[in-house]
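# step 3/5: fold
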Amino acid sequence: MRNRFRRLLCSVITSHVMAERVARHRATGDSIDEVEGRVLQVDPVGREMPVLVNDTTVNFYVPLDCRIELSGESVRMRHLHPQDRVRVTFSVEHGVTIAHAINVTCANSAWQPRKAVMAC
């Protein structure tokens, strides 16, 4: 029960924070965009993630408060793997591409848990 309440509270707070960001960006004239692509590399220490979008590499800075979802669950950046398909909501501020939300649309099949195979 506590975990459900905690998840609900986190999702409400996160949606409120994202709404504030969108409102702030609209007020300042900055635009928030969304792209889909494949993760090329994940750097949780440097908080950087290059993504291949339409044969072009886009380097995203992923701040600590960026919402990252995998199968509807909030996860940390270290759970992302190269070749994962992602949808990234971002903005460009002072020449830096900043991710605001990352949604893993289709995880790389190589990283899925494997089923046990019984030998005959």
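# step 4/5: annotate
The radius of gyration is 16 Å.
# step 5/5: archive (pending)
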